[in-house]
Design a protein that fits this description.
This protein is of the alpha/beta class. The chain is 32% helix and 16% strand. Helix 2 runs parallel beside helix 3.
Length: 172
């Protein structure tokens, strides 16, 4: 309803910042695994699916960027607290740009610093700088002073030996 209203008023945003997946760790009472999955699905998966559907219903095909900022998904330095249940947000983040050509989407993973600290100010400045630029990178992580991007490399595999591989009429 919000996006429809904004479009009708001619005030549709060019960029949407999704912050629902940011959390400072366990709440006062730690949640069970099933509850953590439910929370992650509601804040990270369904909210992005509904957002993508709302964008897809627009009559205008003007380009829009959706930037998802979360924490606990990307392991870069090996010291991060990884929250496996939060990885569900990467699916909609990747699929929305494939299903809706007018949508650019990307994910930025952060470690939340203590409130009011110089690290918090640095992170805010890093995010503002990142959000102010166009990026073709789909997954980014900020760790300290460094910005890490996910990339893929092509490798050459040696030819398979004759007879190796799938069996005719095999079940796997």
């Amino acid at each position: 309803a919000l996006l429809k209203d904004l479009e009708e008023r001619g005030e549709f945003p060019e960029k949407i910042l999704h912050l629902f997946s940011l959390s400072r760790g366990e709440e006062q009472k730690p949640l069970e695994w099933e509850q953590r999955i439910e929370v992650a699905a509601e804040t990270g998966f369904y909210s992005l699916v509904y957002l993508a559907q709302a964008i897809g219903q627009r009559t205008e095909t003007k380009e829009i960027e959706v930037v998802i900022v979360g924490n606990g998904v990307a392991e870069v330095a090996g010291e991060e607290e990884i929250r496996a249940e939060k990885a569900v947000m990467l699916g909609p983040a990747k699929v929305m740009r494939q299903e809706y050509p007018q949508v650019k989407s990307r994910y930025i993973d952060v470690i939340i610093p203590p409130p009011g600290s110089w690290q918090e100010e640095r992170l805010i400045n890093q995010l503002i700088g990142d959000l102010g630029t166009e990026s073709v990178v789909h997954v980014t992580a900020y760790r300290g002073n460094h910005r890490w991007v996910q990339t893929y490399e092509t490798i050459q595999l040696p030819p398979a030996q004759v007879g190796a591989g799938l069996r005719p009429s095999g079940v796997y």
